[in-house]
Amino acid sequence: MVASALPVSLFTLFWLGVGAGVPWFVPKGDNRGMIQTMIGITAVLCYTFWLCCYMSQMNPLVGPLLKNETAVVIRGEWS
User: Fold this and answer.
1) Which residues of 22-34 are buried (b: 16+ CB within 10 A; e: fewer)?
2) Residues 35 and 26: beta-carbon distance below 8 Å
3) Cα–Cα distance for residue pair 28/23, rounded to 1 Å
């Protein structure tokens, strides 16, 4: 479980830093609020997309489809 907690923690901190830190560096201008909002939304959506892709690999819904001959060869090699 620790191995899976490390990437989730690192990516959470990364996207939190992007969403909370990068907007502070936007130069002053007419569209500053809009740009800050877009950066925050981008960080949330990128993190959500990454998390969904990461979690879908934990318990895949579809496994590999093997022919009977292939399964017999694999069973023979692994035992």
Assistant:
1) ebeeeeeeeeeee
2) yes
3) 11
> What's the pTM value of the predicted model, to 2 decimals?
0.72
Please report the sign of the dihedral spanned by the C-alpha atoms of residue 25, residue 27, residue 32, residue 35: negative
Percent of the chain past pLDDT 90, that is, above it, reads 72
Q: What is the pLDDT of residues 15-50, one digit of tens each?
A: 999 999 999 999 999 999 999 999 999 999 999 999
Half-sphere exposure at residue 56, Cβ-oriented, CA atoms within 13 angstroms = 9
Residue pair 19/39 in contact by the 8 Å Cβ criterion: yes
What ranges do the domains of the chain cover? 2-78
